[in-house]
Predict the structure of Lactate 2-monooxygenase.
Amino acid sequence: NLLYGAALGGVLPRVPVDFATLEAQACAALPPSVRTYVQGGCGDEHTQRHNADAFRHWGLTPRMMVDCRQRDLSIDLFGMRLPSPVFMAPIGVTGMCMQDGHGDLAAARASASTGVPLMASTLSNDPLESVAAACGDTPGFFQLYTPKNEALTESLVRRAEAAGYKGIVVTLDTWVTGWRPRDLNTGNFPQLRGHVLTNYFSDSVFRSLLAVPPEQDGPAAVRAWAGLFGRVLTWDDMPWLRSLTKLPLILKGICHGDDARRAIDLGADAIYCSNHGGRQANGGIAAINLLPDVVAASGSTPVLFDSGVRSGTDVVKALAMGATAVGIGRPYSYGLALDGEAGAAHVLRCILAEADLLMAVNGYPTIAAVREAGVSRQG
Ligand code: FNR
């Protein structure tokens, strides 16, 4: 309503409110190397496109004569009351979405101002401690790329705990980088240039593994990181993963009901259904189409979801299909690219405003009502 009021007053938003315009403007603004990295995906990007397109095949049915003047979008997650069912997915190159290289801090400040939790990536440009501090009172989560070295893994988790993160998100689908033609064609892997390895370079265990500190030989430190990246995790590692922390343990990348059940049996506190936005494997089923099986298999365990969410409508559909909370990925990076913290906050607020308005019009005063209404398959 604020946006409508401003528009009536002739004030236009600095950052577009729809995804197509947002992406086009952000991609024009980003340096080419960052643009291909953020916008690109795996193979011919069929899975990436399908992730977003597949939402159209699910439809909501409105209910009438329901008093929806007040809507409650809040959710319970791990004993915390969160003001909305949306979170910022971990994005490893976030820092570079801003010219000053501090996009991670800007994203964290957008989290602080919107109450939308940030999942801070291991591959951040600023240390995880500074990112946590910039989140203010909004709870944050730390996303772990598990290095091959156990002591280094433990050190990252200890630091995340000490910094006040409220959960550890272990990404399962990225022990090796997928086939990304845009990056391969341009020889562009930003992380290999060391921009986003701050959490490693500042880690005492990592530093103890180097002959000389990263400040003296950056390329050698990047090579050491590359050699350590990507422990291959199997179910046998679950007891060890579980033993790493008492914080909620969230497993990201689970797309099959059997995997969800097994993860829960072995101690996971939440399932994170995602195909990494189609960046890791091509030729897959759209993530949203896999969500119902994962939800059914997960029982009362929370299921987080991302991949292809582009609007408030997509958020409501994912909730209707059983997601506990819904992750925004590329859209907030594009907001950062256009207007830093304010741009990311604007993108999140637009997505929430659209979801809220849709709930108002469709007769869903609460998330429970959204879930009860469900979705139907169409076309
Ligand atoms: C990601 N994603 C990701 N995931 C993760 O667990 N750790 C990471 O560091 C990153 N890094 C990353 C960088 C970029 C540029 C993108 C676009 C994505 C995946 C991310 O968390 C999420 O799963 C996807 O972004 C969801 O897809 P959409 O909705 O953005 O298309």
Q: What stands out?
A: The pocket of FNR is lined by residues 37-38, 51, 89-93, 121, 123, 143, 171, 252, 274, 276-277, 279, 306-309, 329-330 (CB under 6 Å). The longest strand covers residues 141-144.
